[in-house]
Amino acid sequence: MSHDTPGPEHPAEFWDARYGASERVWSGRPNAALVRETAGLTPGRALDLGCGEGADAIWLAGEGWRVVAVDVSRVALERAGTHAEQAGVAGLIRWERHDLAESFPTGSFDLVSAHFLHSPVGMPREQILRDAAAAVAPGGVLLVVGHAGWPSWNPQPQPDVHFPTSSEVYASLGLPASAWELLVSAEHEQEVTDPEGHAATRTNNTLKIRRLP
Ligand SMILES: C[S@@+](CC[C@H](N)C(=O)[O-])C[C@H]1O[C@@H](n2cnc3c(N)ncnc32)[C@H](O)[C@@H]1O
């Protein structure tokens, strides 16, 4: 999507400035889709791509997962590390700084999670998600949750931006159907608040696939 193609700014500079502008950017709660879609999975090794301030990684660690959590922003990673200490799960999470356009964590994982891995600068999302699929261990799950459109209070700020459907994300991974099982490909409307604190909605989509053992 054009929203995620390279722009004039470097992603680390952009995201460090974004996180540095306030003490907390996100809610501190795990994403609802993560909680919903990991119910019933046996905790093992998890990889969280674009972990931000760490809420998902911390929640996974609390559920018994050993987590590698990745972000391009040092500011976000430092904040996430502090939150993990406060939550008593620091020993279960390894924080790694990567520009995922340039480098990717080593290892294979029982869960690879990418929640709202969107960026207005310098992010080849399709390539990163193909690397994410390659990092899934046999029997493991890839969970990609993204926005399906703009929020209700600001329906079309950039008409040229295309948010891919979960089917488009799946097709872009180029995976052999014989080696993967499609578990979820769906849209969900989420209740959010607009910048003035009023109730609003945003539609997200979920792709959940499993590499066959
Ligand atoms: C929209 S935020 C989502 C954060 C978190 N996953 C969540 O659901 O709240 C996107 C995250 O991706 C990170 N990011 C953007 N471009 C990146 C890149 N090239 N490499 C690694 N992380 C990146 C940003 O720093 C940011 O934390």
Keywords for this entry:
single chain; 213 residues; alpha/beta; 29% strand; globular; binds S-adenosylmethionine
**Low confidence ranges:** none
Which kinds of small molecule does this entry bind, naming each only once?
Answer: S-adenosylmethionine
Kindly estimate the percentage of residues that lie in beta strands according to DSSP.
Answer: 25-35%
Rg value: 16 Å
Secondary-structure element sequence? Answer: HHEHEHEEHEHEE
Oligomer: single chain
Structural class: alpha/beta
Question: How is the largest sheet built, in terms of strand order?
Answer: 3-2-1-4-5-7-6
Tally of extended strands? 7
Main sheet overview: 7 strands, mixed
Separation of the first and last Cα atoms: 32 Å
Calculate the mean pLDDT score and round it. Answer: 93
